């Protein structure tokens, strides 16, 4: 590997994989077709998934860019049924209050086509839960480490995570019970980590139906200059 010191810091030669235009077009189309088959799934099969798949998916999320390369994320991987049960009970408690009194009528009406409610059986049925924590700052021993663009960085990592779950052939739902500080307690996370997103991961239940909803067309999302 070719190395060079630039402005006092070590650099490695970047090996760029370039494709002919035709292949470039084909690759972008194939990736879009693959990603466009992703659907949010709320009904899971309880079948197990090889743990190494989950580890590879988390490694993929960890390839995301981050502010000053601080990688301000922690991924908790849960398969212990007792912990899943605790998470379900706490999440449903919050969700029940949200649906009964915290969410506006407009919000609940916007969710009707998606068929959501306070019950979250997938938190126990899915073989794995991934809880993503954002690190507001880092800790090296007793020393606080400054982190930057934490929400953006962790959001991008979650995008990578969701794409990796789908690409591997598994399904998920981006679940954000609100408030979700119960996750810090159950998972015993330090105070510089805040829960960001909860993703059940597994196979879909057989004969699952998904809402008949559509994605915006290119003309609706692209403005060219
Ligand atoms: N967190 C709740 C409500 C919810 C909110 C939005 I915005 C959604 O897109 C879906 C659900 C729940 O998980 O049911």
From TrEMBL:
Entry keywords, A to Z: Flavoprotein, FMN, Oxidoreductase
Record carries keyword RNA-binding: no
GO molecular function: oxidoreductase activity
Oxidoreductase keyword on record: yes
Location of the Nitroreductase domain: 37-203
A Pfam family the protein falls into: Nitroreductase
InterPro entries referenced in this protein's UniProt entry, alphabetically: Nitroreductase, Nitroreductase-like, Nitroreductase/BluB
Transmembrane segments: none
Name used for this protein in its record: Nitroreductase family protein
């Amino acid at each position: 590997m070719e190395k060079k010191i630039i402005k006092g810091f070590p650099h490695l030669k970047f090996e760029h994989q370039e494709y002919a235009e035709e292949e470039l077009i084909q690759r972008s189309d194939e990736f879009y077709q693959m990603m466009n088959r992703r659907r949010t799934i709320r009904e899971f099969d309880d079948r197990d998934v090889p743990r190494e798949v989950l580890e590879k998916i988390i490694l993929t999320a960890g390839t995301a860019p981050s502010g000053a390369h601080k990688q301000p994320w922690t991924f908790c991987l849960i398969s212990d049924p007792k912990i899943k049960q605790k998470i379900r009970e706490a999440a449903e408690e919050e969700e029940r209050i949200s649906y009964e009194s915290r969410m506006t009528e407009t919000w609940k009406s916007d969710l009707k086509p998606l068929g959501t409610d306070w019950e979250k059986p997938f938190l126990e049925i899915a073989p794995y839960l991934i809880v993503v924590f954002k690190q507001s700052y880092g800790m090296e021993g007793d020393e606080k480490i400054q982190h930057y663009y934490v929400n953006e960085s962790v959001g991008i990592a979650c995008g990578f995570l969701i794409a990796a779950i789908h690409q591997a052939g598994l399904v998920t739902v981006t679940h954000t019970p609100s408030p979700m500080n119960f996750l810090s307690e159950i998972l015993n996370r330090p105070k510089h980590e805040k829960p960001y997103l909860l993703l059940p991961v597994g196979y879909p239940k057989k004969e699952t139906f998904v809402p008949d909803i559509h994605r915006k067309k290119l003309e609706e999302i692209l403005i060219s200059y």
